[in-house]
Amino acid sequence: MRRLDSAKAGFEAAFAALLDRAPESSPEVAARSAEIVEAIRLRGDAALVEYTARFDRRTLAGAAELELPKAALKAAWDGLAPELKQALEAAAARIRAYAERQKIAEWSFEDEHGNTLGQRVTALDRAGLYVPGGKAAYPSSVLMNAIPAKVAGVGELVMVTPTPGGEANATVLAAAHLAGVDRVFTIGGAQAVAALAYGTATVPAVDKIFGPGNAYVAAAKRLVFGRVGIDAIAGPSEILVICDGQTDPAWIAMDLFSQAEHDEDAQSILLSPDAAFLDAVQAALDARIAELPRAEIARAALRERGALVRVRDLAEAAALANRVAAEHLELSVAEPEALLPLIRHAGAIFLGRHTPEAFGDYCAGPNHVLPTSRAARFSNPLGVYEFQKRSSLIRCTPSGAKPLAVIAGALADAEGLQAHAASARDRS
Amino acid sequence: MRRLDSAKAGFEAAFAALLDRAPESSPEVAARSAEIVEAIRLRGDAALVEYTARFDRRTLAGAAELELPKAALKAAWDGLAPELKQALEAAAARIRAYAERQKIAEWSFEDEHGNTLGQRVTALDRAGLYVPGGKAAYPSSVLMNAIPAKVAGVGELVMVTPTPGGEANATVLAAAHLAGVDRVFTIGGAQAVAALAYGTATVPAVDKIFGPGNAYVAAAKRLVFGRVGIDAIAGPSEILVICDGQTDPAWIAMDLFSQAEHDEDAQSILLSPDAAFLDAVQAALDARIAELPRAEIARAALRERGALVRVRDLAEAAALANRVAAEHLELSVAEPEALLPLIRHAGAIFLGRHTPEAFGDYCAGPNHVLPTSRAARFSNPLGVYEFQKRSSLIRCTPSGAKPLAVIAGALADAEGLQAHAASARDRS
Predict the structure, then answer these.
(1) Any idea which residues are catalytic in this one (chains A, B) (predicted)?
(2) What is d(CA B158, CA A406) in angstroms, rounded to the nearest whole number?
(3) CA distance A61 to chain B (A)
């Protein structure tokens, strides 16, 4: 794994290179995605069946076959091993308990003139949830996306997931059953995003689309943004660990592996003031990689994107962490609460030696859908609030309207908008 | 103005046609915008000076001339008429009072195992604010964007605004002074968006870009989304009025004009169960258009996009309003609170006959930056919360980690992610 030292020459350039990971689409992928989206918009189900047959190698008599009956979800749930059912139920309960606290509050107040001003909150009517197929089909992601939707009170939750060769992932369907997903379509790619955005005769149009996908899915989401809402453009997973050198290096090694095993583009970085500890972690990485069925992926990710970084002190580590704005940040130090005030940007923060990032992926409670590629500088973990929206409320009394008419009239005059001015002054 | 009747044949198609306004970019605009963004990314200040000289017809010796000194903002403020200063100050105070209530709360709780779970909130380090130049340069928009940023505690607020021919809008600069904008650059278009997203030697890179602009600006924002946050893709302004027929038709006419005067693509729709009232409003529109300097714009907007719609009753009006999901919704009825529960989607809701939309544009308190083009189905008014972001907090105790390790281990096994499983079980 790459070794850097913040006190050495060349550090700044090497560190900056690690951070350049923004998820712009390639023009080719964007163009291909745009073609697919346009075909679905114009030809609906016919195009959807064609693309699904081609890309997922399926034989389809018609679009009706694209919907999975709810009984299939139930059957998948019933078929799970009891321990797995129990783990999913326990995770779901914890995710729900955390989500319940995220609801946006309604409020209102009266101004000095007797006018009422407020904020009203409503849920989305219909949300779409993209669940990747194949090896990246994660039941935990179904829970993480669907449970906040249900807590928000979304009217209908529509899941799409590709089934290459017609093979569905039973645990994903079981999780959809547990989380109360309303409808499931076995479609994927840009064509699924377009179907959710525009609707077809078979797939209902949704108001906002959630969930990660490949480059085509990301490009399609970027394209339909505006017509529908989208959650975010998801990039590769990331973990940044700040360690004081006192955590078991074998634990830290496995924490770094836990993101590196996701895919070759995942990023694992460790910051520590203790050079000997970095050596020990490197040794533990070498020793423990034998435990991993996905060793090749993890090895590639650590080689291409990873770094063990010697820092001067924990304060410098925090400053670097703010530049990384990592999806996952572990503060594996004796007093994480003392370090926390120095942290400004991170999707989720794991405090203390006994809080590995993997808890957050499955069952701690907070959502595992988090801003990647430095988006924690400006965006939020997925949460109930992303399935709700606010409306402003304004209620003027006849007398309370008069002072507002004076202000609005003067400003509208200054902006040359006479209808605004007249409309305001009509009430005075 | 177009007349529709929900009880007549052909209504559904005519009404649906009114709603098809989603703001997709044209491919030509998107491609041109992408070129400009790429030039700024690669060549920084040099490209920024070239585009600004060309598009804004300016003679520039270098990029340093693109920044307005703070003294220029102060001078603009000092030069305002006292009545206008007073109106801006009154509006700013009301906008601030409302914004103060929008801050996202921090919270935490302990689970049954002694683990702590929470939500932390921090402000953006640096926000960019795009203010259109020329005729659409509105000081009220500066207040509406800048005040929530300041209430959120944004570290630095950077405004960009084009000055065609070198002419700045003094009232816009004065508003920037009043609202506490930190830096102002006289740049616009896709080149300004790119400069804010990537940074140049002169313009600092920001974390999120706010504010409306033309099609090139919108395309550039869509393009840089992911590298930075963006607020929304702004479309033309809209007003939907539901009236029981008892408000002065002259008032309602002017309310419809108040959006129609913005631009030819603006949309004004009135829903009423009272056909005679719709006639009276049409007569008032004909009579009062003489009051408007921007009559031609308003006339075009009402002709192309407007409608007077007879509905069966107020409940049907509410159902139609939910399909429109208008930026501005007036409930100009005797008992707006009775109608409100039927409304699911609207950016801002104006209750009662004495609450014209124009109050919301200037001084009621709630933000006038609102979702357009049906985006109220899934998005929020601009608010303090858009200048803040959340981080999830997880803090496990040594004993509290054990039950989580069991759940996470089982789920990671099911997903084939052995490093996740091992990392979790290391703590048990």
Answers:
(1) 327-328
(2) 31
(3) 31
Q: Which two tokens stand for residue A314?
A: 């924990």
B266 with B163, same domain? no
- Given B238, B328, B357, B386, the catalytic residue: B328
Domain of residue A289 covers 3-21+235-364
| DSSP code at position A208 | E
Chain B residues near residue A371 by CB distance under 8 angstroms: 389
Find all residues with CB under 8 Å of A10, minimum gap 6, and list them.
Answer: none
Give the domain-ending residue among A230, A258, A280.
Answer: A230
Are B207 and A107 inside 8 Å of each other by CB?
A: no
> What does the pLDDT look like over A90-118, one tens digit per residue?
999 999 999 999 999 999 999 999 999 99
pLDDT computed for residue B95 by the predictor: 98
ipTM higher than the 0.85 cut: yes
Q: Among A341, A364, A387, give the residue marking a domain's end.
A: A364
Q: Tell me the per-residue pLDDT of A2-25, one tens digit each, with 9 for 90 and over.
A: 999 999 999 999 999 998 765 566
| Active-site residue flag, A113 | no
State whether A162 and A297 are in the same domain: no
| Residue B132 and residue B44 share a domain | yes
The count of other CB atoms within 10 Å of the CB of residue A387 is 29
Quote the number of domains for chain B: 3
Query: Does the annotation mark A327 as catalytic?
Result: yes
Which residues in chain B are contacts of A235 at CB distance < 8 A?
226
B92 lies in some domain: yes
User: What residues of chain B score a pLDDT lower than 70?
Assistant: 21-25, 135-136
Nearest residue to A347 (alpha-carbon basis) of A365, A372, A322, A316: A372
For residues A383 and B345, give the distance between their C-alpha atoms in angstroms, rounded to a whole number.
20
Tell me if residue A69 falls in helix, strand or coil: coil
Residues A208 and A59 in one domain: yes
Show the low-confidence residues of chain A (pLDDT under 70): 21-25, 135-136
Mutation target vs A (from B263, B423, B425, B427; most A CBs, 10 A cutoff): B423
